[in-house]
Here is the input.
Amino acid sequence: MKIDRGTSRDKKAYLSLLPIVWIMTGILIFTPSPSFPENIPTIIMDISFDMSQKVMKGKSIITFPGGERYIRSKGLRILTIKLDGDPIAPAVKDGAFRIDAREGSVLEMGYECSHGEGSQCMIGEKGIVLLDDWYPSVEGLAFYKLSTSVPGDFQAISEAEEIATGKDQDGRRVTFTFPHPLEGIHLVAGDYNVKSESYRGVALSTYFFPEDAGLADIYMEHTKKYIDLYTGLIGRFPFRRFSVVENILPTGYSMPTFTLLGRDVVRLPFIVRTSLGHELLHQWFGNLVYVDYESGNWVEGLTTYLSDHLYEEMEGRGWEYRKQMLLDYDSYVTPERDFPLREFRSRTDFASKAVGYGKSAMIFHMLKTSLGDKVFFKAITDLIERERFRKASWDDIRMAFEGASGKDLKWFFRQWIEEKGVPSIEVIRWNISPKDFHSAVSLEITQGEKRYIIDTPAAVKTDQGETPVSLRISDATQRVEIIAEGSPERLVIDKGYDTMRRLSNKEIPPRIAQVLSEEKGILILPAGGRENPLYADAVSFFEDRNFTVRDPAKVKEKELGGATVVILGFDNRIARRFFGKIDKESPGLVFMVKKNPMNPLKAIALLHTDLREEIEASLGKIIHYGKYSIVSFRGGKNTEKKIDESERGLGLLLTEPVYGVEVSRALSLNEIIERVSGKKVIYIGEQHDQYSHHLIQLEVIRGLFRKNGRIAIGMEMFQRHFQKVLDDYIRGTIEEREFLRSSEYFKQWGFDYNLYKDILRFAREEKIPVVALNIRKEIVGKVAKGGIDFLTEEEKKELPESMDLTDGEYKERLKEVFEMHKGSGERPFTYFYQSQIIWDEIMAQTIYEFLKEHPEHQMVVLSGGGHIAYGSGIPKRTYRRNSLDFAIVLNEGSMEKGVADYILFPEPVFTVTPPKLMVMLREEMYGLTITGFPPHSISDKAGLRKGDRIVALDGEKVKEMQDIQIALFYKKKGDTVKVTVVRKRFLSGERELDVEVTL
Here is the structure.
């Protein structure tokens, strides 16, 4: 049997094959060949070559056991055909003809095959490769004996237990005898250097071209190690010969008694550590026990499991290999591309490989983990012994495991082999309760609509260690209870990836495969659009993969959130909108993949290059780096490859950790000021309505000002377009009333100005710059309502130059805030999230701009605690821009790790609030109309009426609400204010009157 292995796989770590970690007790002895059915034909072949004409001439004598037979002769020139000595002229259709032979009938055929395009006969000065359709073949198994004449300087190899060599007039005469039935036969010849020795009763040989002859020793030594390994696991090597043969073609194959390895990969150091062992294992699976393709190809899964996977397992990385198989399934196997394993024949694309190799290997892993090593290997050795040189099916696999285990496994093979798809596991509810001096962790687990029977490991981590358990999940929703020692902290399900399942989003790193497997995506053009020659080839590359090409200025947010996106150029405006500053050196070609911040189920990729030639040399190679999150190339050579971190196992935080402080080591405010005085930016969080927080802020500002006269105050409470008003107030060119009116403080912010008054008056007195950090609230409001697309083009110009939407933990915290607000479900969280990021980013950008222009200054930033906790809102976004050291001080808050550098707990302090008129007002074109009064209203008692239009207070005109707020700010309780109103009269129209209200 020929097993197609493709070209190569990327491996780094050297594999030490011994000592063996999986040990079988006892070794399967080499048993005699089983008896074969009598209806297997015998084929004797004799071929020669005209090397000058590149032609193969052959003769085949086929002895039939009788019955109707089809002979395939596609691609051959048939010279003669005789049946039992008589010439015949059968009707050839689609490269095949039928004969009706009696028992013992002999078919003789003469034929030729020429080297050339479309031919299966590769004949040249360097070598000969005959793999498929190079001789008249019969359907099914046959006994073969092949003799050939090759040039005298050539060495030839074919399936053979015995090889006889001699000389004839054409050069070297070689006869190959294989006493077992084969599905086909192959021949390779060339000017090989051959090295041979005997090991454990097996004649080992290597066939390398002269330029690679130095590889013989390392291949020979690794072949011995693999024979040792598999002899210990599944029994004696099945043949008396085995050869490693270098192939002119780039592909690798495994045939009974030899393997072909492409010359393009044979020199790669990882081939002997992985692919060689895989091919040698195929001598048992595929070349000793054949595949019944009609019932599904099981060979690739079992071979992958006991070779590539086993080698990683022996190095302690088996869980990583299994996770990668699950990631491949997630990347490539969409519902449309999925199919039952019964239907797998061979690898045709990434999806078929993920099913036929990956899912199949995981099934064998689940059998091994559930039944145990001893039963698993007994089933395998029983299968080998019973099905030698026969076609085995999945049913034969099942019966072998049932026989070894004594269990009925029909349910297992039915759900994994007969059906497509894999389960998804999710914990939807949990509870912890005490139980008999232990902790009972109750879980409610769902696996979606389709029910599987799943046995999966889990562990509860407590303050006293881990409690491992095995969970059996058989219902759509399953309730389970785990009894653990100590206080439960975290649950992890399937940490070792022992279960074939869909991974949770947190387990999946962004990866190139996710992008390239997308059937439809969006490609964002670089600066300069299609006219940019740097990315012309990249545009064609992704257009060929059905990506829709969009201009960055015209693409909509909704499109970006609903698709996988590729962005061309790190300086692309869409890249800056999503990822902010991309701190990445970019010589050559860089391709990095991130999770789409607008839709975590999709990906966003960034492709950057500095030369068009780099795209031509490297872009096509990224398909071989599907598991990586970032790759870099220079001159077509890979210079970097990295997988972003992701969670291991399906994790669940059961309880939040409780933190405490050592009171005796508590710091005074002055000590904290001393410690933060060396930082370039000091963030002081607040709850806006807590006066004590603002007093702390003032104390910090005063303390830092004493140490460093060059400080500035950044305030969330003011919008950037009012910066000139702030400057005028601090310089003393306008008074406070005008400042409050011109800055629209009460319209834009709304909190009592007494909370901030002392800070601003101190800044004015000491001429400390105050920086308006915020964006217009109209911008934030519109984005929260309808996303960035809801803005006008002019409004979009006010957005921050760059944004980073990738902080997943911050996003989760904002989602909790969003869901607590009434009516949050009426608008998408995505829009709320965008609005908050815009808010944070514009403040960070403003801080960056000020410190860039005033590098000698230190800045104290005053904002709500949510904008600075954990550094997620403003601090890290500022740091992304300027890399300047900072400190975070929070006023009150929970003691959580990483939430801040310092947390203060000031005693509550109450401030005197301005008096109120106690009226309900509506702003109109010509003033403020009274619409009602609260209970016990002082204005109602003073004589004001519903419908009155207030036009002045103490003689100062009133046009809008903030005019009243400013006027009242300078009053105190007990003062009298003259309220001028316009009142409508029943018959005589309107009249103006004054009403005195005692506050």
In short: The chain has a mean pLDDT of 91. The radius of gyration is 39 Å. The CA atoms of residues 18 and 336 lie 43 Å apart.
